[in-house]
Amino acid sequence: MRQAMQSRRVLVAIGMLVWGIFSLMTGACTPRVEVAASEKPITINLNVKIDHEIRLKVDKDLDQVLSNDSGLF
User: Fold this and answer.
1) Residue-range definition of the domain harbouring residue 6
2) In total, how many domains does the chain have?
3) Quick check: 67 pLDDT over 90?
4) Has residue 68 got a pLDDT over 70?
5) Helix H segments across 1-73?
6) How large is the average pLDDT for residues 36-48?
7) Which among 19, 21, 56, 62 has the fewest CB atoms less than 10 Å away?
């Protein structure tokens, strides 16, 4: 019984040692990310041509209602 407990302790110690070595090895292999500002200014060239056309169609009846002679305003 005593020998079984000793062998179990040895296995637990070996397991902890293996996990410790594994965690150190994987921790040493983590990539390093660095964020730094650029020395040169950022330039954005926008060559944009904006064309717009507004079409307003007024019905003849509505035009008569909105005329100055109608007395509405």
Assistant:
1) 1-31
2) 1
3) no
4) no
5) 2-28, 60-65
6) 87
7) 56
